[in-house]
Amino acid sequence: MKVKKSRSKRKAHIPIRLNILFFIVFILFAVLILRLGFLQIVYGEDYKREVEQTNSTTVTKNVPRGEIYDRNFKKLVANKPENTITYTRSTSTKSADMLKTAEKLSTMIKVDTKSLTERDQIDYWILKHPKEAKKNTKLTEKEQSEIGNDDYYKKQVESVTKAQLDSLTQQDKNIAFIYRQFNAGYALTPVNVKSKDVTDVEIAKVSENLGDLPGVDTAKDWIRSYDSKTTLRSILGSVTSEKQGLPDESLQKYLALGYARNDRVGQSYVEQQYESLLRGSKAEYSSETDSDGNVISTVQEYAGKKGSDVILTIDADLQSKTDEIIKEALKYGKTTPGTRLLDRAYVVITNPKTGEILTLSGQQYKKGKFEDDSLGTFTSSYVMGSAIKGATVMAGYTYGKQPGYSEIDEPIILKGTQKKSSWFNRDNSFAMNDISALRQSSNSFMMKTALDIAGATYVKDGSLDIPNSAFDKLRKVYGEFGLGVKTGIDLPGEATGIIGQEKEPGKYLDLSYGQYDGYTPLQLNQYVSTIANNGYRIAPHILKQVRDATNEDDEVGALQTQTNPRILNKIDLPKSYFEQVKKGFYEVMNNTSGGTTSGTGATYFAGLDYKVAGKTGTAESFYAGPDWDYTSGIPAPAVWNTTFVGYAPYDDPEIAVSVAVPWAYEGDSDNKLNMRIAKDVFDAYFELQKERAKKADGTDKALYSDKKDK
């Protein structure tokens, strides 16, 4: 009986325990249900929003640059459209995904793999063969973790064998090239995969399969196209490629302005100087990505705006004619005696009233071939000789002399130095005034003027005490005319000239007639322009107008801005003083009285339909070009530089011209290349004006556009 009773008690206890267990389970489920209900009711919407959360990122795309025209709206730089295939990766795109896309794309387009480097191929091989790459290193898991990811990958790169690299097929290289292009840009920034010679068939294939090519797209891009007929190529400058991107020296500046690192920008001269006008405004697209970084949709927010068109002051036709004139002159010059070192010449033509540059022409002649050296017109300096004597006469006026003043022309003989004299007076002594001194190009007159400025008295066979301040006084006046200072041209890289550092009395005398300091052809032009316009030193400029871009090749857009003359300084002398020097310049070109009393330029310019005023120059110098071994210890040969400055018409100047022919000849055989070039340039200008006047009928595009904007 006791046993049965015990069993019945145990049976009674079991249901109680089960009930307790069931109760606990019930409580737990109840808590769980309550918790889920709480989360659903209180935080449900928050979690739903988090799951459905998307991010919006602005993506920019480049627009075509503005185009560049000459003053008569002749297009010098255009945009050539081309088909392109682009790739834009998302913020979460993995290397494996990019590789798959590259493999698919490689079956649809042909690529040039010549630029594929060995390192590019190694990176691709490692990506394709991760196990073999790991095995190559012979590192344990522990050693791998100890050296870090960067050093481990470096070890993988170093361990790839030549045989493994040689196993890559041409198809592998195609994929490697495309994969490299994919990695060239930043997340959500389009990069060109192929932009040259993209065929219509390739565009069609890619367009049909865009759904299987995430990130890939087709588009229209542009490349710069420069007029092959113009010799202004160096002045126009160039634009970086997408691969070059932003120049290192200007990286931070451009990034601060909103550029992307792979943007194309102007990297020299006009393209660089007016980058802000030519670049335009990028198109903006809003790309929406999900929580995993995948692009859901892309919407254009702003279509962008093509860069503004830039109109230069350059006359392309006159530039071309001037280039040919220089070439013919150099070819002729090389047939004359003493010209073994002759290899270059420069011409600058401006409007002396506005500072507009019509021509920047420079040519180098080497081994029977010509090279454009337009940049040399403002980046190279030479001793210019007597062409600067007008500035010396003006210096005399500045420091107290009156128009018509006289000096004794006689040889200057100082103790222990060689005789210095005028070319036409080696031994005699006679008076000359400022006009006759300019007409006959008197060195002695200029030296005497400089001595008066220095407060020094000349005594034959004596010595001179010239204070250093005298150099400064003379150069100050020269600088007011643009000699030895920057002209203010709106292009980078301008030279200031060569300022002699020696302060001996003889050097001071040399300075007074252009035999010491060196100047650029552009400085020479600014100097004569300042005389032509009665004392206004105007900054030469190459930008004439900025206009809205158009989509029509034969039209120009509405005028935005126009460059006005920028006066750098006004020389504080009466107009009559300038008129006196201008009379002297007129005599130089038109006086045919005979013998040494004739103007030094009259043989070439007297009796023309138009009247030129100006000054010729011949400077004794030493060769400083590339065709001499300056380490040999043998002094460079003595040479003559020939120069010219002038303007026309005399009574109402339209153009100012400067000519420089460095190292024109050795010895005494003056080939007069400076005169030949100057005469032909003036002829070309006035003939061109006549031709245009005949063609003008009131609908001439250039004239019409100017009238329309007024």
TrEMBL record:
Transmembrane segments: 20-43
Membrane topology: Single-pass membrane protein
Chief location: membrane
Keyword Hydrolase: yes
Pfam short name (any one): PBP_dimer
Superkingdom in the source lineage: Bacteria
The protein's Enzyme Commission number: 3.4.-.-
Subcellular location field: Cell membrane; Membrane
Annotated GO CC locations: plasma membrane
One example of a Gene Ontology biological process annotation: regulation of cell shape
UniProt xrefs under PANTHER family: PEPTIDOGLYCAN D,D-TRANSPEPTIDASE (PTHR30627), PEPTIDOGLYCAN D,D-TRANSPEPTIDASE MRDA (PTHR30627:SF2)
Name this protein carries in UniProt: Transpeptidase (Penicillin-binding protein 2A)
Species, as recorded: Brochothrix thermosphacta
Species lineage: Bacteria, Bacillati, Bacillota, Bacilli, Bacillales
Protein encoded by which gene: pbpA
